[in-house]
Amino acid sequence: MWDGDVHHANYYYGHAHVLARYCELPEPMHPPRMRGYLQHGWNIGDGLAPGVPFVAGSKLFVWSEETRRRSWSQGRREVIVTGAPFAYLLTMLPETPGGRREGTIFYPFHGWEGQLVSGDHHAMIDELRAVEDAPITVCLYWNEYRSRPVRRAYEKAGFQVICHGYRGFWWRDHDREFLVRQLAVLRRHKRVVSNRLCSAIWYGLLAGCEAAVYGHPMTLDNDDRTFGGEPRLRRQWPEVYGHRTDTAACRELARRELGADVLLSPMELRTHLGWEA
């Protein structure tokens, strides 16, 4: 069991740093601890990763009204819609008019320290070549980036291979510039693509990219299907699937899934997170 007041996942990807900046707090090495659990990735469940122990009564800060309703159905009552940190970042870093976009950035479905992904990257490379215009950039999660076979497959295909950085773990090595770096890369590309619907697709849409989800979704070791898994993704968000999609319709979905239309004021957010002066 963990105490929601001190959970380390609140600092993944520099989320706490982004929110502290938006709340106009001083720039500390470590932002104040939040009084609750912040959703740290796009989630088709209740905002928590499946199987995460939850201290009864702890607040859960979720990105969207849809997630709040799902969380309520699971018995959570202290649920507050705050919006995604990435959506706040866009309000602080508006895009420069007239910026040039070209090519596609591809985010392969990835695992993490506790679960690895299996799949045919070579088949994915062939499909990307057939569908996308050059240049193609592949952004690997940190552990796949360190995996020579996976990285070399994309490099040998002639794609640029990058990594946004390390998300952090147990209050160590949190990269406050992770989302800043990701936003800058997305704004350089015309399209964002993945083989499974994920945070990066919604981020890219909100940042002005066209988006598409296609290719074999690959498999995650010991995948938890509590909330429906890949089949549910295709049923519930068919708009983003296929080689070409309706950008306006997908972008509206992104605004809803990231809570971009319900962002709080700095004072409201400070109060909810327990950062009031």
Automatic annotation (TrEMBL):
It comes from the Bacteria. This is Uncharacterized protein. It comes from Luedemannella helvata. The lineage of its organism: Bacteria, Bacillati, Actinomycetota, Actinomycetes, Micromonosporales.
